[in-house]
Amino acid sequence: MNDKLLYRVTEVAEYLSLSRSKVYVLIQSGALRSVRIDGSRRVRGEDVEAFVADLMTDAA
Question: Contact, 26 vs 32, CB < 8 A?
Answer without folding.
Answer: yes
